[in-house]
């Protein structure tokens, strides 16, 4: 599944330096998008992704563990990750998951 | 650019070709002609194959183009729907692309840019008009004839626009897809949903590796225990003539298109609710409907009575099992008092 996400990021969304990290909990994908992903981002930042399937059930505890795993590999604080949800028709949808509360964007 | 005739481009709603015999009129030759055509009518319907690799069904050979064009089955793994990665990538890497050929994604990108430009121009024009009127009120200007200077949709050069939007350095990753002769290696394939594979196998004889109905049901159910329930819903709408595609983009299970994605937007989002499973609470439903309402589609909750399935499900049994499923729809619509008075 992580390999499928890597192919999608590299060849459909034109990300660079996409690497799969195996942790004891799950595979994590790390890479850099060609432009900023969020309007509030000052500059392009590299992102951490967690592979998931559309029929998975997720708990807050699992997310906490994912953040900890990513921080272990990165060696620094990770404040947001992307949940990459793979569907049976090959669609992958990406959602931001933040650690803690984030001030909503002004409209 | 001239508008394509979509009906001529996609004449077949399913991967099946109906051979039309000529009419018989009071003329012996027409009878003879009819008989010849009838006797020698071959089966002109395509025989497509697919394979099952790494847990997904891939269309093989002609099926990649055929299954998309005849019924809009499957999805290109690197595209929004129809496989078009090769066109986009060739243009981006400066390789040869046939003139006038654009990927649907490029057309969308182009239209969005055009609209944004139009809106900016319109805002500018409105501001100027406001200023002019204020000047007239203050006696600084005279009201002159009403000029026809409404902003018009700008004509852009598509190729120039796309060249600019693809302006990024060639990445080392791109070497993976270009061979030693400088040609693009097309790494994209058409992936079929498991429900599509079983439907095409049952109804149109699609070969999926050497799997039969039993092997497919076993394997797909192993991956998703509710496979048969989703299959029953998929089969229900497909057999009623809808084009059914994945609804994950909007948090639903399926999208229903009247004819297919090139013709119109999807009208309905289907959320499957197996009857014996606990109903999600109202807040969950409300969230889903706001998302779907935001893209101007109608939410359909599809309640399914799931029979108890025992033993092997093979070719003959599957039909029996499907007959025992019951599908009922409930449409959910948000009602806004101030906007629903007439």
Outline the biggest β-sheet of chain B: 5 strands, mixed
- Overall pLDDT level of chain B: 86
Instruction: Estimate the strand proportion of chain A.
Output: 25-35%
Gap between N and C termini of chain A? 36 Å
**Helix percent band of chain A:** 10-25%
Number of helices of chain A: 2
Q: What is the alpha-carbon Rg of chain B in Å?
A: 27 Å
Average pLDDT for all residues of chain A: 91
| CATH fold label of chain A | Trna Endonuclease, Chain: A, domain 1
Q: How are the strands ordered across the major sheet of chain B?
A: 3-4-2-1-5
User: Which two chains share the most extensive interface?
Assistant: A-B, 19 and 28 residues
Write the element-wise H/E pattern of chain B from the N-terminal end onward: HHEEHEHHHEHEHHEEEHEHE
Please list the strands of the largest sheet of chain A in the order they lie side by side: 1-2-3-4-5
Shape-level CATH architecture of the domain at 226-342 in chain B: 3-Layer(aba) Sandwich
What does this entry look like structurally?
The complex is a heterodimer of chains A (107) and B (342). Chain A is built from 2 helices and 5 strands; from the N terminus they run H-E-E-E-H-E-E. Chain A has a single domain (2-36, 45-98), classed as Trna Endonuclease, Chain: A, domain 1 (3-Layer(aba) Sandwich). Chain A is an alpha+beta fold. Chain A has a 5-stranded mixed β-sheet, with helices on both faces. Chain A has helices at 2-12, 60-74, and strands at residues 16-22, 27-32, 47-53, 80-86, 92-98. Chain A starts with a helix and ends in a 9-residue tail after the last strand. Chain B is an alpha+beta fold and 342 residues long. Helix content of chain B is 38%, strand content 14%. In chain B, the strands form 2 sheets. Chain B has a 5-stranded mixed β-sheet. In chain B, strands 6-7-8-9-10 form a 5-stranded mixed β-sheet. In chain B, a hairpin with a 7-residue loop joins strand 6 (243-246) and strand 7 (254-257). In chain B, helix 7 packs antiparallel against helix 8 and helix 7 packs across helix 9 (227-239). The interface between A and B is medium-sized, with 19 and 28 residues. Chain B: Belongs to the tRNA-intron endonuclease family. Chain B: Residues 227-305 form the tRNA intron endonuclease catalytic domain. Chain B: Heterotetramer composed of SEN2, SEN15, SEN34 and SEN54. Interacts directly with SEN54.
